[in-house]
Every structure is written in C-alpha cells, then in structure tokens.
C-alpha cells in the first residue's frame, strides 16, 4: 500500500514522491424531508457491523428532481462525514475520476485529486451524481474500488490509491432515456438499489415552503394541487420544478398585487414547464376560491 501523509490543512497530500492537491468539500446544506424509508435504507447500506466489514455502494434511482442528491448529502451530514460531489457526464474520462495533471505557471506538473479520490483518502462520502450518464470505460476504472479491493490505479501519476476504511460511496441515477445501461459487472457492485418516487402532496408542500418560505399559503395550495394532478397522469414534474414555479409566481405577485394567484401560477408554469402543462389546471371558476385555504378544489385535468 502506498504511504499517504496528510498535511495539517488537508489541502495537499504526499503520496510517495508525488504531491497531490485535494478537492474541496461540497458545502451546500441539505435538509431531507422526503421518504424516511429511503434515508433508513441509505444509512443501513453504509453501516459497518465490524472492523472487517465493508460499507456497501448503494445507488439512488428515480426521476430527475425527486431529491436523490439531497438525500445523500443529508444522510452523510447526519453521520458527520465530509461530503464530496462528483458530476457524471457522457464525456467523463477515467482520469477525471482519479487524478488529473495540471501545468502550473512555472511549467511544472501538478496533480489534482478528483472529489472521489479525495473522499477515498480522507474517509469521506463521495456522491457520484448521475452516474449512469458515464460510459462503461469510466466505470471500469472504478471496478476495483467498488469491491473488496477498495483501490484505484492512476495511470497518469503511476500510483495505486487505497481507500480509507471510513470511505463511503453512493451514486445517483436518473430514471430516464438519456442514460447508459450499466454492464452487469458494475451493477453487481452498486447495491442496494434505493428507489425514490415523487413525494405525497403534504411532503411536497413542506419542501416547497422550506425552499420558498415567503410563498403565500394559497399559492402553495394551488401549486401542490397542480403537481399532484400531474403525478397522477405520470408527468415527471418534480418538486424541484415546483420550487422554481413557486419562486417565479411569487415574484410576479410581488411586482403586481393585482395579479391573481391563479394567473400568477399559470404564467409561471407556462414559463417553466411550457404550454402542455397548463392542461393540468382546473377550470378558471374553480381556481377563483383562492382566499380559502381550507377549501381545496376537486381538481381534474381539462
């Protein structure tokens, strides 16, 4: 095993004769208000029951915007792990996942560790976001990390890097048509699968209210009712879409108090989701009851 020495500020490490710069922690706050079962399953997959026991490498699967990354960050923070986020893309190369050489101003080669390798070395959590957008070639470079060997090889730096015993890994995977099918030998290393679906209407309301605390209550009622109807018809409008709709609709109202709540919401939905989404609004006369939050209309697509 290559000897790794950390300096006091954890920005640079010495690996053999090579100095490597570490990636920065992912410092965005996350508050999970969704499915308690999903968070329990993620904690269980990362649990070590003995010194020799290895944490599992779960994958969070669901439609875009259901909170997969938020869940991973929130659970990692609750467990007091440093968090490192790496974005998977179709052009992610194996070197991008491990160590990248950079030419400095003095025309020297400097080596920079990816967020994944940084998490490996410091014993943190790596969240590989949208992992099924990466090619098999990139995943193949991680095969030895995701089994009992727990190491990766950097061809560029000519070193082998072993993971800290507290290193945890999770990948999020969107359930849509714009992704790769992973080969079986990779899928078998990414277990358990934890599935996330759209939240119920009460949870979506709490999430939107948390993200947009200044939203008018009646506007929130109309918004989550719209989202609930869309979900029943298998539309992929997520709570992330809902947050953007809420922010824009409330801004429209703030600039023009004469603009009704239904009009502000429809304008926002049209601007963010497009005209097709407007069919999930009830008839206009049903939306006029905006001053009575206890009276929710019986919404039907039109």
Automatic annotation (TrEMBL):
InterPro entries: ATPase_dyneun-rel_AAA, CbbQ/NirQ/NorQ/GpvN, P-loop_NTPase. Residues 60-189 form the ATPase dynein-related AAA domain. PANTHER family: MOXR FAMILY PROTEIN, REGULATORY PROTEIN-RELATED. Pfam families: AAA_5 (PF07728). Residues 286-302 have a biased composition (Polar residues). Residues 283-302 are annotated as: Disordered. SUPFAM superfamilies: P-loop containing nucleoside triphosphate hydrolases. GO terms for molecular function: ATP binding; ATP hydrolysis activity. This is AAA domain-containing protein. It comes from the Bacteria.
């Amino acid at each position: 095993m290559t000897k790794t020495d950390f300096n006091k500020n954890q920005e640079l490490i010495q690996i053999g004769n090579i100095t490597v710069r570490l990636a920065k922690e992912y410092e965005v706050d996350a508050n999970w208000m969704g499915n308690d079962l999903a968070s329990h399953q993620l904690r269980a997959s990362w649990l070590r029951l003995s010194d020799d026991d290895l944490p599992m490498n779960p994958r969070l699967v669901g439609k875009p915007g259901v909170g997969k990354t938020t869940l991973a960050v929130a659970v990692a923070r609750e467990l007091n792990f440093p968090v490192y986020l790496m974005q998977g893309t179709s052009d992610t190369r194996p070197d991008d996942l491990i160590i990248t050489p950079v030419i400095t101003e003095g025309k020297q080669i400097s080596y920079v560790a990816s967020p994944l390798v940084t998490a490996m070395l410091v014993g943190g959590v790596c969240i590989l976001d949208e992992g099924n957008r990466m090619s098999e070639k990139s995943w193949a470079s991680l095969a030895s990390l995701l089994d009992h060997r727990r190491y990766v090889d950097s061809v560029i730096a000519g070193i082998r890097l072993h993971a800290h015993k507290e290193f945890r890994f999770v990948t999020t995977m969107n359930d849509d048509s714009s992704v790769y099918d992973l080969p079986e030998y990779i899928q078998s290393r990414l277990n358990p699968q934890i599935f996330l679906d759209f939240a119920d209407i009460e949870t979506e309301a709490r999430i939107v209210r948390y993200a947009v605390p200044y939203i008018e209550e009646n506007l929130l009622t109309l918004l989550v009712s719209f989202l609930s109807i869309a979900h029943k018809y298998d539309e992929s409008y997520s709570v992330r879409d809902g947050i953007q709709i809420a922010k824009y609709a409330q801004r429209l109202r703030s600039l023009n108090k004469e603009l009704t709540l239904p009009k502000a919401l429809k304008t926002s939905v049209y601007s963010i989701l497009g005209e097709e989404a407007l069919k999930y609004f009830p008839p206009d006369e049903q939306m006029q009851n905006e001053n009575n939050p206890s009276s929710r209309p019986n919404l039907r697509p039109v």
